[in-house]
Amino acid sequence: MGLPWRIWPHIIGSVLIAMLVYPWIAWTQPVAAMASGWMDPVNLSQSTADSTSPAAVVVNGRLHVVWEEDGQLYHRYQTDTGWSATVAIGSGSEPALAADGNGQLHLVYVDVFGGNAEILYRSWKAGNGWTAAVNVSRTTAASATPDIAVSSDGRLHVVWVDDALTDPWVFYAASSDGLVWESSPVSDAFGTGPQIAVDAAGRPHVLWVEPYSFDDPLEVFYTRWTGSEWTLPEDVSNTPTANSIKGVLVLDAKGTPWATWQEKVNGRWQVWTAPRLTTGWGAPSVLAQAGKDLMEPVLAAGSQLVQAWVISDTLQVRWFDSRWGVPETIWQDPDGITQPVLAPDTSGDVWAVWSSPDDTGAGEIFASRGRWMRFRLYLPLHVRRVP
Predict the structure, then answer these.
(1) Closest CA to 204 of 164, 141, 167, 160
(2) Helix, strand counts (H, E) of the chain
């Protein structure tokens, strides 16, 4: 029997070198490999109240999180020495958060204003704190589920659902200063759960969920602003006989729109993800596991596209580098994980933030940081004698 092969690993910077060694010979050849690691989660809320609905963004390399707690909104962020104190913003629910290039936070949320549920806006900057609330929606009917994006020129873009008309309708508003807002309904967008992203030209892209007719299953739809009008809605999920819910939209570094959503297949929830190509929406990548439901998918576009979802009591993640990588576990909690969000920064780090119940059943807000890295793995190329 010959002597066994052995692998000798060595890391130089971000390069992983593995030598396959047999008594006197070794081979080397570079191939691509990926790896990441996630830190133990930090409890940000640390409250006896029910903490839910986290929104997160990274500003100047520091994570900021806003969440809801018994009808109030709270804010906490990284500092040079750890974490800031928890700051009460005011009453509200359903927060959504974005940041501009000057390090300013932009927050939209739902609160009762003049006896009606409205979409309100506030901003925050280090040293200044939170500004007073401004009414964005200004309608006579209930407004809900806002989302916000900021274009490179600092212009603010907000979407939400409003019941001002017969059916729920997606509304869009924009502002250059956060004080004066211009709003109007998005053409033919009669649905819920709107998401917004803005391209390099400052034009908004919008995703939402809507049935073709009242009794039909839900579908995921998409439109974008051309500069003069909204394009005709495109059916992203394109499965009229199956429910498609919880759509999420991002634009990657090249400006390509990506959508992910939950798809009901044979009684189980799967996670479907697709890019919008020049010819339309591409074939979806499908995440599924026999006998399991994959829930609450989210996407983020930093240095790499990253996706997370919940399966049973586990939060999982995968990275995209010309193709989707193997799923990894961020954290497992036997009490459950809900409402995950992702917040990438420019260094390659990504923060995952979510809510998990404590021993009393009240939600707590947790955060964990991970990093995508590409290694070079050296495998057989030539033979040389090893002394």
Answers:
(1) 160
(2) 0, 36
Strands 93-99 and 105-113: antiparallel
Contact 49, 362 (CB under 8 A): yes
The DSSP-derived string for 274-343 is EEEETTEEPPPEEE--TT--EEEEEEEESSSEEEEEEETTEEEEEEESSSB---EEEEE-TT--EEEEEE
How does DSSP classify residue 371?
A: E
Beta strand residue intervals within 191-267, DSSP E: 192-198, 204-211, 218-224, 234-235, 244-251, 257-265
Percent of the chain's residues with pLDDT above 90:
80
CA distances from 211 to 115, 169, 242 (A): 30, 13, 10
Distance CA 362, CA 203 (A): 40
Domain for residue 8, yes or no? yes
With 0-12 / 13-18 / 19 or more C-beta atoms within 10 angstroms meaning exposed / middle / buried, residue 324 is middle
Average pLDDT, rounded, for the chain: 89
Which phi and psi angles does 165 have, rounded to 5°? Answer: -110, -170
Determine, yes or no, domain membership for 379.
yes
Q: Is 71 exposed, middle or buried (0-12, 13-18, 19+ CB in 10 A)?
A: exposed
Domain that holds residue 387: 1-35+373-387
Q: What is the pLDDT of residue 100?
A: 96
Other Cβ atoms less than 10 A from the Cβ of 187: the count is: 15
- Domain assignment present for residue 341? The answer is no
DSSP character for 255?
-
Longest dimension (CA), the chain: 85
pLDDT digits (tens, 9 = 90+) for 50-107: 999 999 999 999 999 999 999 999 999 999 999 999 999 999 999 999 999 999 999 9
Q: Is the dihedral of CA 230, 108, 338, 348 positive or negative?
A: positive
Residues in the chain: 387
Question: Can you tell me the distance from the alpha carbon of 120 to that of 114, in angstroms, rounded to the nearest whole number?
Answer: 12
Q: DSSP class of residue 5? A: P
pLDDT, greater one: 139 or 259: 259
Task: Specify the pLDDT at position 259.
Answer: 98
Report the run of H or E that residue 123 belongs to, with start and end. Answer: strand 116-125
346 in any annotated domain: no
Domains of the chain: total: 1
- Give residue-wise pLDDT tens across range 165-195: 778 999 999 999 999 999 999 999 999 999 9
